[in-house]
Amino acid sequence: MRVSFANEMNYKLLLQYDGTEFHGWQIQNDQRTVQGELERVLSLLEDSEVHVAGSGRTDSGVHAEGQVANAKLNRSFKPDKLRSAINGNAWRDLRVLKVEQVDDDFHARFSARGKTYVYRVINSDTMSPFWVRYAHLEKVPLDLDKMNKASRFFLGEHDWTAFSSAQSDSENKVRTIEELRIDSTWDQRANASLLEFKITGNGFLRYMVRSIIGTLLEVGRGEKDSDTIQNAIVTRDKNLVGATAPANGLTLKEVYYE
Q1: Are 233 and 159 in contact (CB under 8 A)?
Q2: pTM for the complete prediction?
Q3: Torsion of the alpha carbons at 31, 32, 34 and 39, rounded to the nearest 10
Q4: Are strands 94-102 and 52-54 parallel, antiparallel or unpaired?
Q5: Among candidates 86, 92, 85, 118, which has minimal Cα distance to 194?
Q6: Domains, the chain
Q7: Active site annotation includes 59
Q8: What is the pLDDT of residues 113-166, one digit of tens each?
Q9: From 30, 59, 125, 183, the catalytic residue
Q10: Mapped to the 3 state alphabet, what secondary structure does the chain carry?
């Protein structure tokens, strides 16, 4: 059990990481994880065990451009000095962009009010080596108009049982999706169309975003329609949902707080 001290200071960390070499966020025995890497570095700086809380658990292979964590330390650090110290001791696929000293009751997960994820797809018969770690290759031409029309059925408050992992540790499967938009641009580096699925909600279950994206990709390929999506949400039947999209295309874009 970690002992709490009166002079403890709570630090909020804004993080970016390439998830390729990480086995997700959460600490696992003998596996390299984002939480484990941060706790290793902070415990070294604090000279005692430090616990790091994250806004949520990203899965193995998932990236983050705007992950948020917090940790309580007894040693006093100026925010910029702490950022530099963490970055100087962490591997290069993890970086702290910003450190803030926050109120003691701030918690990266429980204080969060919403998140935005982005899923990236290269729609081409050839994958650029510059995108292979950060986007999913879809060789079949995708119908952007059909996918955007189908995306409207995901908006609002729903029970997401059909679109979540059976191993999800959350009993309440109700979440609200506030925005789901799909944009297509021509990417010069890939010499192909780059699709970005942007999804914002008040919270997400395990595999929920990737399951939604996988279903929309099947709509884009002409394998599913909007009626199937509606039925999947209402009946909570996992058999109506598309294959879960691969982890490498998913990035946690931003976490929102009051």
Answers
A1: yes
A2: 0.94
A3: 90
A4: unpaired
A5: 118
A6: 9-102 (3.30.70.580), 113-257 (3.30.70.660)
A7: yes
A8: 999 999 999 999 999 999 999 999 999 999 999 999 999 999 999 999 999 987
A9: 59
A10: CCCCCCCCEEEEEEEEECHHHCCCCCCECCECCHHHHHHHHHHHHHCCCCCEEECCCCCCCCEEEEEEEEEEECCCCCHHHHHHHHHHHCCCCEEEEEEEEECCCCCCCCCEEEEEEEEEEEECCCCCCCCCCCCEEECCCCCHHHHHHHHHHHCEEEECHHHCCCCCCCCCCEEEEEEEEEEEEEECCCCEEEEEEEEEECCCCCCHHHHHHHHHHHHHCCCCCHHHHHHHHHHCCHHHCCCCCCHHHEEEEEEEEC
Q: Amino acid identity of 229?
A: I
pLDDT of residue 3 exceeding 50: no
